């Protein structure tokens, strides 16, 4: 009798029966307010009726129409819908299945497009678990340790996480840009550097918005040296930050962008987008895959983008997310063990520390468990596992935000009072 790999543990004990909107129902009929959204995936809520209808309709027409063998309508539709939200310069799209695969494709494209070998990634960044994606990940050693050697040509630069350094934001940005210049002089010359790879809002690394001045600094350096600026929008994209793409918060446009998770409300599909001129520099045959751009996932993706527009969900994510942030903020005044509450849009986080201000992962785990007892599902993140993240769907209601905040406060109180 086979069992699920014992290494794949779950953060809650919930056995899901079905789910709808912001709610998960278990096999015993209990309901849970889902502020985990499957790690930021169910953007339009669970089983949005329009997404369900689009997928059902497509299943009866064709499920698998392999993208390097034939063309199919849902993929063309999805590209049309993405065109309404992508920066106009990123007019070429290649589909794959997971965020990691999109990151792999972006790395391959950046190297082929520049003819340069090296990638500069940023400390605390998370880009996935496949070999190249793990090689550029530094959000946690458990993602990259034990199966090396990893891919070469990867250099990590300090990331402007002001809470980690304990400095004001401006000073942290200045330090990080200086260290990047130092990296150019000590480890990888600009002319051998293919790409900067960065999350405009760090996800698994702790829900930290990259300061706009840092992204603007990277954009300027990329332009100066012919380096590709790759923004990983897998977690923060598709409306979560109150902008469709999180790089918009800094007013910059990347050369290559990855996307996945929220773009199809739960169907496994990912993509990279780039200017056609850059995408065309990929070597023939270097892009492909059996399942990439699956017809059912693409139909769900196209409908997801339409639902986000029709129901004004980017705006809703901004409004409701700010309200959640406002409701969580007093926790930092009330408890010494809350080092910071932060976030943007519906990406919200609470960082727990001990009496000396050091990371307190046990507190975060205890709060996660207490939240489950309050019937609220949240997740931990951060290199030390001491951050609790709350990620409601884009269409969360004001009542659900208020209820989620009340349940979370109760969970924190159960652990810390
Ligand atoms: C920013 C970012 N990039 C890439 C990935 C990898 O995506 P996947 O787990 O679909 O491979 C993730 C997953 O959490 C992510 O948050």
Low-confidence regions: none
Shape verdict? globular
Which architecture of the largest domain does the CATH hierarchy give at level 2? 3-Layer(aba) Sandwich
**What's the mean pLDDT score?**
97
Figure out the total of helices: 15
Distinct ligand kinds = pyridoxal-5'-phosphate
The tally of structural domains comes to 2
What's the CATH class of the largest domain, please? Answer: Alpha Beta
Brief description of this entry?
With 417 residues, the chain is α/β, with parallel strands linked by helices. The protein is 38% helix and 18% strand. The mean pLDDT is 97.
Q: What does this 3D model show about the protein?
A:
It is an enzyme of class 2 (transferase). Keywords: Aminotransferase, Pyridoxal phosphate, Transferase. Belongs to the class-III pyridoxal-phosphate-dependent aminotransferase family. GO terms for molecular function: (S)-3-amino-2-methylpropionate transaminase activity; 4-aminobutyrate:2-oxoglutarate transaminase activity; identical protein binding; pyridoxal phosphate binding. Helices cover 38% and strands 18% of the residues. With 417 residues, the chain is an alpha/beta fold. The protein folds into two domains: 16-34 and 312-416, Aspartate Aminotransferase, domain 1; 51-310, Type I PLP-dependent aspartate aminotransferase-like (Major domain) (Aspartate Aminotransferase, domain 2). Strands 4-12-11-10-7-5-6 form a seven-stranded mixed sheet. The protein has a four-stranded mixed sheet with strand order 1-2-3-15. The N and C termini lie far apart (45 Å). Pyridoxal-5'-phosphate binds at residues 39, 98-100, 103, 126-128, 199, 203-204, 232, 234-235, 260.
């Amino acid at each position: 009798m086979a069992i699920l790999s014992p290494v794949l543990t779950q953060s809650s004990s919930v056995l899901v029966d079905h789910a709808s909107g912001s709610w998960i129902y278990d096999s015993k009929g209990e309901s849970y307010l889902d502020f985990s959204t499957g790690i930021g995936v169910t953007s339009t809520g669970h089983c949005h009726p329009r997404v369900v209808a689009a997928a059902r309709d497509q299943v009866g027409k064709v499920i698998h129409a392999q993208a390097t063998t034939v063309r199919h309508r849902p993929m063309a539709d999805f590209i049309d819908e993405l065109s309404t939200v992508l920066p106009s310069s990123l007019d070429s799209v290649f589909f794959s299945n997971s965020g990691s695969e999109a990151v792999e494709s972006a790395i391959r494209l950046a190297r082929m497009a520049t003819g340069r070998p090296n990638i500069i990634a940023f400390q605390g960044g998370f880009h996935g678990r496949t070999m190249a994606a793990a090689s550029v990940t530094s959000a946690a050693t458990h993602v990259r340790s034990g199966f090396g050697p990893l891919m070469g040509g990867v250099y990590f630069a300090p990331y402007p996480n002001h809470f980690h350094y304990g400095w004001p934001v401006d000073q942290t940005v200045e330090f990080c840009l200086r260290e990047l210049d130092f990296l150019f002089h000590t480890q990888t010359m600009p002319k051998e550097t293919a790409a900067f790879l960065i999350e405009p809002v760090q996800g698994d690394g702790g829900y930290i918005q990259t300061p706009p001045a840092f992204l603007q600094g990277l954009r300027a350096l990329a332009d100066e040296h012919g380096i590709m600026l790759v923004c990983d929008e897998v977690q923060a994209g598709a409306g979560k930050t109150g902008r469709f793409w999180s790089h918009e918060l800094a007013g910059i446009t990347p050369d290559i962008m990855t996307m996945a998770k929220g773009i199809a409300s739960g169907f496994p599909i990912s993509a990279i987008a780039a200017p056609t001129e850059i995408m065309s520099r990929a070597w023939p045959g270097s892009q492909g895959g059996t399942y990439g751009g699956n017809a059912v996932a693409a139909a769900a993706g196209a409908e997801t983008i339409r639902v986000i527009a029709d129901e004004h969900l980017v705006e809703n994510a901004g409004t409701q997310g700010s309200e959640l942030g406002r409701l969580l903020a007093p926790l930092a005044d009330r408890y010494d063990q809350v080092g910071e509450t932060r976030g943007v849009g519906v990406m919200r986080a609470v960082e727990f520390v001990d009496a000396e201000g050091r990371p307190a992962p046990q507190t975060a785990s205890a709060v996660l468990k207490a939240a489950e007892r309050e019937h609220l599902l949240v997740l931990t993140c951060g290199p030390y596992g001491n951050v609790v993240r709350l990620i409601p769907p884009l269409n969360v209601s004001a009542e659900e935000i208020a209820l989620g905040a009340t349940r979370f406060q109760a969970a924190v109180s159960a652990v810390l009072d």
